[in-house]
Structure formats: C-alpha cells, structure tokens
Write a structure and sequence with these properties.
The complex is a heterodimer. Chain A is an alpha/beta fold. Chain A has 10 helices and 10 strands. Chain B is 29% helix and 17% strand. Classes of the chains: A alpha/beta, B alpha/beta.
Amino acid sequence: MTGAHPLLSVRDLTRSYGTRRGCADIAFDLWPGEVMGIVGESGSGKSTLLGCLAGHLVPDAGRVVFDTRAEGPRDVLAMAEPERRMLARTDWAFVHQNPRDGLRMGVSAGGNVGERLMAVGARHYGQIRSQALDWLGRVEIAADRIDDKPRQFSGGMQQRLQIARNLVTGPRLVFMDEPTGGLDVSVQARLLDLLRGLVRQMGLSAVIVTHDLAVVRLLADRLMVMKDGLVVEQGLTDQVLDDPQHPYTQLLVSSVLQA
Amino acid sequence: MKDYNFAYLDEATKRMIRRAILKAVAVPGYQVPFASREMPMPYGWGTGGVQVTAACLTPEDRLKVIDQGADDTTNAVSIRKFFQRTAGIDVTERTHEATIIQTRHRIPEAPLTEGQILVYQVPIPEPLRFLEPRETETRRMHALEEYGLMHVKLYEDIARNGEIATAYAYPVKVQGRYVMDPSPIPKFDNPKLSDCAALQLFGAGREQRIYALPPHTQVVSLDFDDHPFVAAKAPHACDLCGDAASYLDEVITDDAGGRMFVCSDTDHCATRRASGHAGRLGGSEGAAA
C-alpha cells in the first residue's frame, strides 16, 4: 500500500439524463484500506455515481483518478477501453445488488469463480479449481457445491458466490451496490460479517452504496449523504450518524426503525 | 447454362463476396460481415459455402463437394449438380484432383496442396455465442481479445465430464489473435487446420459472415496445461480399407448389435481399397463396392 496518493480521487463528477440531474459536482478521495459508504433515498443519484466510478456509465464531466499498480495515478475516464476493462477484472470488483446481474447463471459455481482467473491468463485446470475451492470456503459455501449452478443456490449463497467471484483476483477496490438488498436479516448479518472480515484481511478499499444505515455503520469508515444528485453531507460515519448537521441527514437518521 | 450467369450469382454479388473474402484473408480468423443472398436451398444446407464457392469458381476449376466426408450424400450430390448446371465446370470425387472443395463437417484425409481452396459450410460462426448471447458484446470481446470466457466453457466440460468433452466445433486460436469456430468438424480434424497448404474459407449464409485461414496459418486448439487437447477418434480401424488412422463413422448393420466402422472420407477409403488395402470386411463388401 502506498501512502502518497489516494487510491481513488474523484473531482467534479457530473452526469445528467437529458435535463434531469443524475449526480453533480461529486468530489472525494478514497485512501487505501478505506471503506466509504454512500447513502440516500431512491433516486438520489447513488447508483448513477457508482456506475460512473466503475465505468459502466460515461459521465458528462469530471475526473476519476485511480492509483494504478504499474503507472501510478491515471484518469480512468481518459483510458482506452481495453485498459479500463483490464482494470475492471483485475484491480476492481463490482458486486451487484442482484446476483443475477453479476453471475453467469448457466455456469457452475467453480466456473463463475474461475472466470476472472481465466480472463487474466490462468490455464491450469487444477490450480483454477483449487483456487475456486479456496474461495468458496472463504465465503462459506460447501466444497461439494462447486459444480452446482448458481440458480440452485439460495439468495444469500448467490450473493456470497458473487463476492467470491469478484475477489478471487485480489482486487484493491470494490464497488458494491446494495450488497445486502433483498436478503433477510440473519443472512444479511452473516454477509456483513463476512464482508467486514474480507475487507480487513485483504486491506480492500470499497465504495458501498446502500440505503441501509446499519450496513454503513458496520462497514464504512466514511459516509457521504446524497440527495437529488448532490452530496449534502460527508464525514466520518459515526460523526454523521450520531450528529447529523443537514436537515435531510437528520430526517434519514431519525427515520430508522428501532427494533 | 445460358439461363444463369456463371455460377448462379450475378457478377456484382460475386465481387461483393470476393471483397469480403479478401478482407477475411487479410485478417485471419476475423468474421467479416457480408450481404448474404437468398439461395435456392434452405438455410442450413450450405448457403454460405455455396456463395463462397460461387465467388471463387472459374471455368477451369474442378469442384469436389463432401458432406461428413462423403461425396455421395444428398447435400453433396445436390450442390455438385447445382454447380455443374449453373457453371458447367468439371467435378471430381478425388481430393487431389480438385481445385475447390466445398465441405460440410470434415477435412479430407489426404493432405491438401497449394492452389487448392477448401470451403467450409458454417452454421454458427460465433464461438462465444452460447456463452454470451449479445452480439454487440461478443464483437467487443473479439476486438479486445477477451477470451477468458472460452476457457470457462472448457472448464465446465472438465468439471462435468472429467475431460474436455467438446467433440466437434472445438474452438481454436488463429495466429495468436482471434478465437474462431472451425465449423462443426470433429476435433480429430483440428490439427489439419494448422499450417495447411490450401486456402481455407468459411461461409455462414444465415449469419452473414465470412472468415478465412490463409495457407500456412498457425491454428491452435484451446486447452488447459493439465488437460491438453486430444484429437480423438473411434479406437478402431476401417472395416473396409483397414486404415487405423482415419476418422470413422459407426454404421449399425442389423438389429442384433452388429456394427461396422468405415472411413467417413469416402474418397480416402476408395483410393486405399483400389490400391489393395483391405479391412475386416474388406474382402467381400469391399470387392462388391
């Protein structure tokens, strides 16, 4: 881990859909090993922002500078497509809210985990398989399920498989879009536990988009609150959640149901 | 003969197809789109191959047509007659006499020579089709050389069957660049694709794609380090000509489990028998045929 540059540095990022604002003037730095949460209600521009960062959407303006392994800080948006896609399957990972978007449902669990390895040149079946087994173990999927297809898995298992598939190449930056959405609470808790462990062990940096404040409190070091495509408040997670300054953040924090 | 332009297609169409062929030869393994025409036969019967053959034919050419290696199957006979009638060219069943060979599902056993053209009929030119259904995405994957997915298919084969069970249309990499579907030839024929002296052209009529392997192009079958590619065939010798090294068809001969293995390449088998080779049943049936 270098300490000289932020891993990801975003400036003036703007994306609109016609005259409608997706997100505007977003700026932040993400340092190695740091986890940042982005919260806000539906339509506040969270997913647009994440899409722009991960290269799924083309922003209208702004810069996304990533500290690459080989060449130091580079503007991702100015990269050629092969380079960006290479980055996306080596140093980056993207965990979709719906595992169906992130997995190949017709390919076995082992094949799903192995795909990224094969995409970066692994050509030894035995090694690919043992690495897949290792990762299935880390995300608590039994070894005898390695040849089963994801559609035979429960929702929580599919999500864990998606995480294994993404982390197998040892990325440095993970984008997560509502990783616990649609799962029941006990499954959510185990998934969060797992994610927290992996993030700490591997020293991952992550950007997590969610509307669940409990998730960010557990996972995120820093928090950004979005409304109508703008960042209304950002700071340390505990600070923002315990002492919200902006009226919208206050509303958000006070809206959480107390169990 | 007067009722048709030479080789059925009009000259402008042939020129368009030749342009696609030239481009395909210039970029080995790359699928070149072309404006495939309606042919007087249904898709799946070799409309792509027929158009490529028509664009390559000259009045001096001698044409051979094979289907699964055989010169005497319906598809082969029909296409051969088609070009006899519309182009008035000579035809042959001898591999070494032919200047153009249109084939479906086989490469002849006899080595091809410089100056020959082998035209394949291709049903699905896109090797990534069943892994990634979006054509926009597969084209991008070819452009960016993202072929990890092809190995996922082979991985799945091994995981499920203990070996690479893909037996035909086995994916290959051309000259270290494009991954290509060699058309549904048995993987036994894959090694013959590489460093072949003849020009190999692939035509897919319904899919409107032409691709090519210029002579002496390097073609490598994809595999894993610990599961290398094996050119498999039935572990028998031909019952008619006794060849143990040629690709075989299994023929059921009665209702009591009787069967025989015969060369799928009829010309190869006939040539061997004519020069005195005989297999297990070669004495009786070989002499009769």
